[in-house]
Amino acid sequence: MVKICLGSDLYSDKVLNYDFPTFKQRVGGDKPHFVNFFAPWCGYCKRLKPVWDELAEKYNIDGDRQELVIAKVDCTVETPMCADEGVSGYPSLVYYEVGESKGLKYQGKRDLIGLEDFISNNLRDKSKDSDNNKVVSPENGALVLNDGTFQDTVKNGMHFVKFFAPWCGHCQKMAHAWEELAENFQYDKSVTISKIDCTENKKTCDEFEVKGYPTLLWIINGKKVEKYQGARNLDGFKQFITEMKTAHKNKLDNEEGRIADSKESPNLVVELSQNNFENAISQGVSFVKFFVPW
């Protein structure tokens, strides 16, 4: 029998209060959880109170109709557990999918609209028909990928992928430029412009170590090659694509869109040492990379 701890000096009793045993037993179970890691003295936590209480009134209902559990953990009491969950500030709002012990931290505005949008996006993903998770659909020129289609789509060739969250303000500001980019390159078979919603496709985003939104990655044959760090506008994106295509054009097999086997093409990079360095650069122009293996 699961013990649910009720009562708190901050949030209403409608918000389920978890201690270490109940958290470990319930989170990752048969219902998704949205957990507020808080401290009673925290001013931001106090300002969040009416919103979090309202979410609990809506979602913490009895019976089979319950879609989501709204919970709380007092980190002044459950300090070791909060440390294990990576809580470094209050409040930390973390969404846990069914069967997942690792959560997705909410980064948006702490108001009812932002939180409801975040919840709806996550719940909608679970209500989709499983066949839809195998369909690659274009949207304004960009391919819309998901956990079911990502690997098959990017396993061959060059890809420029936007990892985003719908509630992310920076993503929203960049959306138009990304659509323009996709429309510009929709007939260019040498590169694919795509996007993936990390609130709905946590598995793929975790695999590519996405830590913030938007994250823009250049992927070749299913492997991350470069992270885009430039201006988030059309000109910046196009310049980056040109640079990446130029830098990696000789690595792709034109027929199958895969990186050529090292046995098929010799290594044209000359390895220099203290013994041959001066002689190697004595004539013509040399382009040298100085590096350490680690």
UniProtKB/TrEMBL annotation:
PROSITE patterns: THIOREDOXIN_1, THIOREDOXIN_2. Gene3D superfamilies: Glutaredoxin (3.40.30.10). Residues 1-124, 125-246 form the Thioredoxin domain. The keyword Signal applies. GO terms for biological process: protein folding. Keywords: Signal. GO terms for cellular component: endoplasmic reticulum. GO terms for molecular function: protein disulfide isomerase activity. InterPro entries: PDI, Thioredoxin-like_sf, Thioredoxin_CS, Thioredoxin_domain. Belongs to the protein disulfide isomerase family. This is Thioredoxin domain-containing protein 5 homolog. It comes from Caerostris extrusa (Bark spider).
